[in-house]
Amino acid sequence: MSPNLRILFTSRIFSEFARAMYPVVLPLFILKMTNSLANSGLFFTCAMLPQMFLMPVVGVWIEKQSKKTVAVLGLLGLLTLTTIEFIILLLGFKPLIVIGIISALMSLFAATVELATKVLFTEIVSKNQLEKYNGLKSVWDNIATFGAPMLSTVIYGFFGFKFVALLCAMMYLIASLVLSQMLYQVNRDEEVKETHGFISNLKEGVVFVREHKRVRNFYLLASSLNFFVANQEEVIFPGIVIQKYHISSQFFGLLLVIYTLVVILAGLYLSKKSEGNSRQLLSKLFIANSSVMVVMGVLSVVFHGQARFFFFSMFLALELVLGFITILINVPMTSYFQSVVPVGYQGRVFALLSFISGFSIPLGVTYSGFLASKIGADWAYIMNNICVILIVLLVFSRQSVNERKKI
């Protein structure tokens, strides 16, 4: 492993630890303040809007900048925001509007760091090793976050949300200091058209996506999946585990601890597999992933809030399966984009993907929040994932038809 990869992985150990802590307890904090799944879903929708609309601008801008510098500045921005949040809560203020603004800015900075890191990763890793090192990156990321969900919920339960914000600030400080030590040179792709101006550069990215049908199909699939599935941590899991089964917030973090443990094992498994084999199974893995979620929702309906610890044990067991399948989907898809899209286009292409997916996430969170408040989080979970299965079948069946026509 090269020194630059070691630096990147080390930095992400700390940044991913903070990123895993914050999203676990923030929904609990907001749900406690609002006492409403619908209002909680609306809060996260508003918090994600700035990221959604500004990412295309960031994607074009980032291509002319040092990706390392952008990532370091983004981490320092996250450090500043979490520190401000700690001070506000320490003084006893809990203004929902201020917390919403901080959350929105943190979402934007975190997305910028992730975008810069994806392109940076492509710049320092050869194409034939992308899936291997993406698998290892997943392992390192999730080793860092293994104890984060449990630790964050314990700190939240005993000391409050403000000390979670303080610990996140410390992690972001260390991550930025480590990443600042990286030294590298970029070999830009020759096939990238050099244009001037934001509109021209953005248009080139759109043209690239339009002309590559498989990339375009993954764009459409990602937006549909995010609409129906990306709400589980903010709406579905709190609605089922805490509101319906009255599991304490200290135990709530076990869900993500179990999930992270299996993701680590799945990442190790993927790093030993060939790139082609994992991509060929994507359609089946998508369906299996949503099928597991349907089973989780059905179990919640069947137990009807009773035998809560037995139900929670089964819920955790299914998280094992879910975590393994999810990483088998995410790593090959990321590697595919990084290997197919030229480095000079990746800022735009990944930003457009973030924009399209980001547009569907807040809508999905709001939709699922209101749906869960009307029919229950478990029924909403079941309905959403049945829709996902139907969408996956449609997308991959059309792709197969198109490939047969070419033959």
Molecular structure report:
It is a single chain. This protein is mostly helical and 407 residues long. The protein has a single domain (3-181, 205-406), classed as Growth Hormone, Chain: A (Up-down Bundle). It has helices spanning 3-34, 37-62, 67-90, 96-124, 130-144, 148-159, 161-179, 198-211, 213-229, 232-244, 249-252, 254-271, 275-280, 282-303, 308-340, 343-375, 377-406. The longest helix has 33 residues, at 308-340. The protein is globular, with a radius of gyration of 21 Å. The two termini are 41 Å apart. The mean pLDDT is 79.
For the secondary structure, the number of strands is 0
Overall CATH architecture: Up-down Bundle
* Low-confidence sequence ranges: none
Number of helices in the DSSP assignment: 17
Counting structural domains, the number is: 1
Radius of gyration over all CA atoms, rounded: 21 Å
Order of helices and strands: HHHHHHHHHHHHHHHHH
**Distance, first to last CA:** 41 Å
The average pLDDT score comes to: 79
Approximately what portion of the residues adopt beta-strand conformation?
under 5%
Topology, please?
Blueprint: H1 3-34, H2 37-62, H3 67-90, H4 96-124, H5 130-144, H6 148-159, H7 161-179, H8 198-211, H9 213-229, H10 232-244, H11 249-252, H12 254-271, H13 275-280, H14 282-303, H15 308-340, H16 343-375, H17 377-406
Helix pairs in contact: 1-2, 1-4, 1-5, 1-6, 1-7, 1-10, 2-4, 2-16, 3-4, 3-7, 4-16, 5-12, 5-15, 6-7, 8-16, 9-16, 9-17, 10-16, 10-17, 12-15, 14-15, 14-17, 16-17
